[in-house]
């Protein structure tokens, strides 16, 4: 890969989210010459017979999506949203640039209102909002968000937010208790898009995670958007601009 080629952007969705949720953002990035590959994890299954735990399967899916590009000689930027930050942090571990390596590598991690935690940590360890409950009627093994408009899409136009709600999948209860064994932000340049009007993962917890990583001696570049938990829908142009800004410095 030459220094002038743009990295492939691999998007790791948040819980309940599928690639369709990020289509507007992908189009904005495509218009600026970026190839975008959005992962569809096994944990968005919304059937009653959900697997007990999809963590390992999701790690493999994310890692394979990344290495399909790096092994072909392309550099990759991993953009993680919400719960996708937990799995993406581990899945990207070890894929940064190695000395004298000629193949592609992960050159940038970008967390977007996402969980950026240390090894062995899980959101349940912190006194943060709990927005999901067991879906006892439809999918007993699944968690669901009773008011996704309020928590995910309060600043998204009505027709678009309803389409996003209709596209939401499931999230296995067991999956929500996993903890990364390794975290890629220790070895790969890292950035964070702060969403200051987020009602699912408020700005306080976002800044708490950033400060904790910085306390480990890691530099975290930040950009703040006046957006909900879903800037890829409420302001896809500004979100794409923030991502481009990080990548142009990489």
UniProtKB/TrEMBL annotation:
Q: Superkingdom of the source?
A: Eukaryota
**What Gene3D superfamilies does the entry give?**
alpha/beta hydrolase
Domain (AB hydrolase-1) ranges: 9-242
In terms of SUPFAM superfamilies, this protein maps to: alpha/beta-Hydrolases
Q: Name one Pfam family in it.
A: Abhydrolase_6
Q: Which InterPro entries match?
A: AB_hydrolase_1, AB_hydrolase_fold, Sec-Metab_Biosynth_Hydrolase
Q: Which PANTHER family match?
A: AB HYDROLASE-1 DOMAIN-CONTAINING PROTEIN-RELATED (PTHR37017), ESTERASE_LIPASE_THIOESTERASE DOMAIN-CONTAINING PROTEIN (PTHR37017:SF11)
Name used for this protein in its record: AB hydrolase-1 domain-containing protein
Q: What species was this sequence derived from?
A: Aureobasidium pullulans
